[in-house]
Amino acid sequence: MRNANQAMVQKYHNDFLKEVEANVEGGDWVKMCMQCGVCSGSCPLGSAWEHPPQEIFMMIRAGKRDEVLRSDSMWMCTSCYNCIVRCPRELPITHIMHGLANYAHRLGIAPKQNPTRRFAQIFWKNIVKTGRVNELELSIRLYFMDGIVSGIKKGLQMLPVGLGMLKTKRLDPMGLFAHHGIKGKADLQKMIKKAREIEDKRKQLA
Q1: DSSP 51
Q2: Contacts of the segment 153-162: beta carbons below 8 A, 24+ positions apart
Q3: Tens digits of per-residue pLDDT, 99-152?
Q4: What's the DSSP call for residue 15?
Q5: CA 150 to chain CA centroid, nearest Å
């Protein structure tokens, strides 16, 4: 019985909270959560979360590392900021959610099939090339990210919407092909390269 209790205490007093504080934006605020649940009640997708924010914070404090970092929950955040506005302790909940998602991604343990994560990856690869979104390329990659057949089906489903936008002149087909990047694209690439070098050094020191 004594050994069992010691194991439970050891499991609770883990280093996951310290890990979050050191690697996640706003992570040092997690211990301030008083579990009131206002964040979950304020979230427009609150009922769809596997683990609502206050539960994520309690799981971090309880040392449930894999359950937190492998969860889809953080990827559900839409950045509406309702939780931050209404939190009685003014916790930066939105930033923490995105920070946890980003940290799980950096560790390579984020859920690979999560649609939000997949969109984020496609969007980043698109915008990092020229500093400005290429809407045509982005749309094509999103439509066909599950394969050719799925992409064709999605295109046919959205065809009435596209035709309606053309009819009301809400869509300029020629504008889709007129993509121009930002000025100083070379400088942008240098900044991104430098940021990656800093991140790699930080990982080595962690």
Answers
A1: S
A2: none
A3: 999 999 889 899 888 888 888 889 988 988 889 988 889 889 999 999 999 999
A4: S
A5: 24
- In the chain, the amino acid numbered 204 is Q
| Residue type at 187 in one-letter notation | D
* Nearest to 119, CA basis, from 95, 107, 101, 131: 101
Q: Would you state the pLDDT for residue 85?
A: 95
How much is the pTM? 0.72
**Cα torsion 101, 105, 109, 114: sign:** positive
Confirm if 133 and 180 have CB atoms less than 8 A apart: no
Average pLDDT rounded to a whole number, residues 41-64 = 92
Please state, in angstroms and rounded to a whole number, the distance separating the CA atoms of residues 69 and 102. 10
Evaluated on CA atoms 42, 44, 48, 49, the torsion sign reads: negative
CA 61, 63, 64 angle in degrees (round to 5)? 110
